[in-house]
Amino acid sequence: MTEAVPSYLSPTGQEIVFLLLGAVAVGSALLVVTTRQLVHAALWLVVSFGALAGGYLVLTAEFVAWVQVLIYVGAVVVLMLFGIMLTRAPIGRSADLDSGNRWVAAAVAVATAAVLVTVVIDGFRMAYAPLTPGPGAAKEIGASVFSTWVLPFEALSVLLLAALIGAIVLSRTDIPGGTPPEQTGGS
Amino acid sequence: MHIVYPAVVSALLFSVGVYGVLARRNTILVLMSVELMLNAVNLNLVAFDVWLGDRLHSGQVLTLFIIVIAAAEVGLGLAIVLALYRNRRTVDIDHLRDLSEPPAEDGEPLRRTAEPAAVGLPAATSTPGAGNGPRTDTEATSTEAVGSDVGSHAADPNAGDPEAAGPNGAAEPATGPVKRGGTL
Fold first, then answer.
1. Closest residue by Cα to residue B35 from A83, A23, A103, A153
2. A149 CB within 8 Å of a chain B CB
3. pLDDT for A69-96, tens place per residue?
4. With left for phi above 0 and alpha for psi between -120 and 50, is residue A90 left, alpha or beta?
5. What ipTM is given for this predicted complex?
6. A63: phi then psi, degrees, rounded to nearest 5
7. Which residue in A133, B27, B84, B126 has its CB near the most CB atoms, within 10 A?
């Protein structure tokens, strides 16, 4: 980490590809938080997550990239679309998606970005990592998960089960205790 | 690859997520912005794992764990949003103000010191009623209906005057199942 750092003025092909993917990710994330249509926000979220998965691929984290495509692009965005559908949100253009404090929010976000970018550039200006394929493949990650990280992995499976049961209990209406007061009076 | 590039991209994604959480009104859009912030953290973890060359792959394994936890969080969050929509018919954060401080709270001690307490009391009693929303209203009407039903039951064997039979007959079709449950 202390060896000579290559110049920023002659970027490699990997860096150019990563910067393009990062621009796509940040740009579509901006569209997610500024678009006037709810369904378009979910679809721009797909573009942002897909560009991030490409960034993981460039960073040689192949397994994380495919898990990102499977879970985020496949499952989370579909859940979001189900939520949009079940809350009967307006499909077309709606004017009241932004609250009244959006200029305060923009100021806070710009301040956060300024502080973070300044600190990160100042702190990691000399950091350089040569990219070698292999350490992010599924074989390596799988061996690491099932040897070193097996206890948090099992705890996480219990957490997923608890979250699943919690979501079922929250969304069902015929469980006593979650029923509205008129139905408990009637039965 | 310079580590600055993924770190800067992740910082920008995080601040975009901060803007979305603060500026959006729809709860599902706020959840999407939270997902953007979690993805910024994931990109940081992957980049620093590649930089440090950890033999245990801590960064990438923790990224997988964060992805799983984010999936659980979205599932629970959407269940909560759907329960909210069933009860309130809205998912607009600006209209969900039950847990907010009542606006007359901070101005009240000044008024109480300046004027007698009889002026400050109606304001203090009116603000929780206005902020509680429609759910306590339906609760109040349902208990009121049960109370009038019990009252008509108590008045029924006592006197058969037409004044007591009038509201009893009027309330009978509306509170039929309640009365049947009482006799069983």
1. A83
2. yes
3. 999 998 999 999 988 888 877 777 777 7
4. beta
5. 0.87
6. -65, -40
7. B27
Confidence (pLDDT) at A90: 73
The third-level CATH classification (topology) of the domain covering A13-148 is Four Helix Bundle (Hemerythrin (Met), subunit A) (1.20.120)
| Amino acid identity for residue A34 in this structure | T
Q: Which residues of chain B carry a pLDDT beneath 70?
A: 104-184
Chain A within 8 Å of B82 (Cβ-Cβ)?
Answer: yes
β-pair partners for B92: B26
A1 Cα to chain B: minimum distance (Å) = 8
A32 within 8 A of B36, measured Cβ to Cβ: yes
The domain in which residue B78 lies consists of 4-95
Q: Which residues does chain A have with pLDDT short of 70?
A: 1-4, 176-187
Amino acid B97: pLDDT: 82
Residues 103-132 of B with CB under 8 A from A: none
Sign of CA dihedral B13, B18, B20, B23: negative
Domain boundary among B69, B95, B121: B95
Could you tell me the sign of the dihedral formed by the alpha carbons of A78, A84, A86, A91, in that order? negative
CB B6, CB B44: distance < 8 Å: yes
pLDDT number for residue B184:
40
Do B8 and B91 sit in the same domain of this protein?
A: yes
* Contact residues for B102 (Cβ-Cβ < 8 A; gap 6+): B127, B128, B131
Query: b or e along B105-143 (b: 16 or more beta carbons within 10 Å of the residue's beta carbon)?
Result: eeebeeeeeeeeeeebeeeeeebeeeeeeeeeeeeeebe
The pLDDT value recorded for residue A86 is 87
pLDDT (0 to 100) of residue B102: 77
Residue B159: predicted pLDDT? 43
| Predicted pLDDT of residue B106 | 54
A residues 22..61 contacting B (CB < 8 A): 22, 25-26, 29-30, 32-33, 38, 41-42, 45, 48-49, 52, 55-56, 58-61
Number of domains composing chain B: 2
Separation of alpha carbons A62 and B10, rounded Å = 18
**Residue A157 neighbours by CB distance under 10 Å:** 11
